[in-house]
TrEMBL record:
Family, as annotated: Belongs to the asp23 family.
Domain of life where this protein originates: Bacteria
A Pfam family reported for this protein in Swiss-Prot or TrEMBL: Asp23
Region (Disordered): 1-40
Protein name, as recorded: Asp23/Gls24 family envelope stress response protein
Species whose genome carries this gene: Speluncibacter jeojiensis
Amino acid sequence: MDNASPTRDHPDTATDPGDLSLPSAPPSPPPTDSGAGERGSLTIRTKVAQRLAVRAALDTPGVLVHAAGLDKFTGRDLPRARVVISANRVRAHLFLAVSWPQSIPQVARAVQHNVADALSDYAGLHVDGIDIAVDHVVVRGDDAVTRSVQ
């Protein structure tokens, strides 16, 4: 037996590229573009939309995290959001604390814009409206007025 000649049993010793051919795989069917209804559905939970709205509000200059009195114990700190989702439409109600001396109407418009962008970009929802309620104006720093009982 001659060990110098290439055999089909040992393809790595073969020198003829014709000997290394692999069987061809059957052609795969072309991809079909199915409609969105055939692929599935996307459900955005209310809690997710609330968190998106609060995060977008906090990213707005002039909006602060604030809790006072019993709110510290009940977990009702600001900003807080309540959203109503129907199909792919959303309406949000936000409750905010704004820092002094910010312009409340300007901060409210900026929050509306940021929240609408976040809900439409990240959740794919159509925003019907953003209602803003400024529940507290926070005075910080040296210019805070303190009163004492005498």
